[in-house]
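Notes from the 1:1 (GR / supervisor)

We went over the backlog. Supervisor wanted to see one worked example end to end before approving the batch request, so GR pasted a single chain during the call. The sequence is below; no edits were made to it. Supervisor asked that the structure be written out right there so they could see what the output format looks like.
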Amino acid sequence: MAWVRACATDEIDEEDVARFDQGDRTFAIYHSPEDAFYATDGLCTHQAIHLADGLVMDHTIECPKHNGRFDYRDGKALGAPVCVNLRTYPVKVEDGVVLVDVG
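Structure output shown during the call:
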């Protein structure tokens, strides 16, 4: 496993998303209403738009360009125009830091 620091837990409000870049890859980190953290690829599968610029509601991220929606917990595409799921990544929290397994 390749655990890397994404952010501090207090850097993402509940029901919000933050962008995290590692090398040439972009990720999106989510803070759920249950105070859990999740990570997905950071670009929409429809047109490679940064999801961190989108809107988070409940457990859904909405792409800012064409309003495609995904369940960020499992990456499932929830309807047109998106039809390809997002890749998700394991997350753990240690000492107030969100770590993502990008391996």
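Supervisor's comment: The two ends are 6 Å apart (CA to CA).
Batch request approved.
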